[in-house]
Design a protein that fits this description.
The protein has 244 residues and is of the alpha/beta class. Helix content is 57%, strand content 13%. The chain is built from 10 helices and 8 strands. The strands form 2 sheets. A 5-stranded parallel sheet has the order 2-3-1-4-8, with helices on both faces. The chain has a 3-stranded antiparallel sheet with strand order 6-5-7. Helix 1 crosses helix 10, helix 2 crosses helix 3 and helix 6 packs across helix 8. Bound molecules: adenosine-5'-diphosphate (2 copies) and zinc ion. The site of one adenosine-5'-diphosphate has 16 residues, from helix 1, strand 6 and helix 10.
């Protein structure tokens, strides 16, 4: 399956991606994590990205699309993936379609929209702490790891992202509403969008996301079984129509 998690910063996309990717056995592609890895390596891309990330602006489309294209072309991504934080505007959405079709991959199966108001995400973001090694998310109000400073999953160091400050968060939300929110209409028109009520606690959101994924996986399996028969039946008719 090819899934996009869409929603404002702090909506819980990264948190929910862990469980979804484990249950579907597909890799998680977080463009934020990929960009932070480049920053940590001190690569040219990382140095360029840093300036944008710290101001809460989007990194230029070309750079982000390049990273995603390289990632999804590799063999371990052929069976599917979950994109978290990408696409973030219409031009990235169109670039994704192109990258998938050039790579001979099917299009997206599902876009899950994490519906949550701005007032709920501000405290989530300012209290968020992240593992430097594996990208796992924690919160100061809930997770012991934010006190011990050690990631429960991989033993990596927990840190406070420099863009998770009140000022930058306000800017990121503005960018989200201006540039990313129009994608809701785009994917709704394509019939790919399903909303989840993401203001509730992690367990409730997780159950709703799980239900959406199960329904989609069920209908995808159903379509895969039926598709060959339908194609075989449709082709002769089409050919005849063209010959006439
Ligand atoms: P996103 O990837 O959408 O930016 P995260 O998954 O990183 O969001 O979540 C942001 C912060 O909010 C993290 O500290 C996470 O632990 C916390 N969080 C995630 N989901 C919920 C939830 N449903 N309720 C409360 N806090 C949450
Ligand atoms: P969050 O889920 O909290 O918004 P991310 O980790 O997804 O945070 O992104 C952090 C920052 O990385 C963004 O504010 C932006 O500067 C940059 N970034 C991540 N993904 C993209 C993208 N698809 N296009 C442009 N910039 C991106
Ligand atoms: Zn970790």
């Amino acid at each position: 399956m090819r899934i996009v998690f869409l929603g404002p910063p702090g909506a819980g996309k990264g948190t929910q991606a862990v469980e979804t990717c484990e249950s579907l056995r597909i890799p998680h592609i977080s463009t934020g994590n990929l960009l932070r890895e480049e920053m940590a390596k001190g690569s040219r891309l990382g140095k360029t990205a840093k300036g944008y990330i710290e101001k809460g602006q989007l990194v230029p489309d070309g750079l982000v699309v390049d990273i995603v294209a390289k990632t999804i072309k590799s063999a371990s991504f052929r069976k599917g993936y979950l994109l978290d934080g990408f696409p973030r505007n219409l031009s990235q959405a169109r670039a994704l379609d192109k990258v998938q079709s050039v790579a001979g991959l099917p299009g997206l199966d599902l876009v899950v929209y994490f519906d949550v108001p701005d007032r709920a995400v501000v405290p989530r973001l300012t209290g968020r702490r992240v593992c430097r090694k594996c990208g796992m998310n924690y919160h100061v109000s809930r997770d012991r790891e934010t006190v011990t400073g050690v990631c429960g999953k991989c033993g990596g160091e927990i840190y406070h992202r420099s863009d998770d400050t009140k000022e930058t968060v306000v800017n990121r939300l503005r960018v989200y509403h201006q540039q990313t929110a129009p994608l809701l209409q785009h994917y709704r028109r394509l019939g790919l969008l399903v909303s989840v009520r993401a203001e509730r606690d992690i367990g409730a959101v997780s159950r709703e996301v799980g239900g959406v994924i199960r329904r989609m996986a069920g209908s995808a399996a159903h379509a895969a079984v039926r598709r060959p028969a339908r194609v075989r039946m449709a082709l002769p008719g089409k050919k005849q129509a063209r010959q006439r």
